[in-house]
Target: CPXCG motif-containing cysteine-rich protein
Amino acid sequence: MFNDHTLKHTDINCPHCGHPVHLDLDCSNGDQDYIEDCANCCNPIHLNLHLNEISRTLELSVSSDNEQIY
Ligand SMILES: [Zn+2]
Model:
């Protein structure tokens, strides 16, 4: 799903309202954990980005602040 470049573009669905959210991911900094506000419902989306060094792939976990989705 993810490979090759350091800058990734991906689309997720907001865990609050299901609205598609476009993300630009920068995996050059390795693992990241941050909050992105949904453009539709303005609720915070918790993003956990893990760079797998071995397979050179990005693993993205998306959750709302009050509900963990793995
Ligand atoms: Zn939303």
In short: The two ends are 17 Å apart (CA to CA). The chain is about 0% helix and 55% strand.
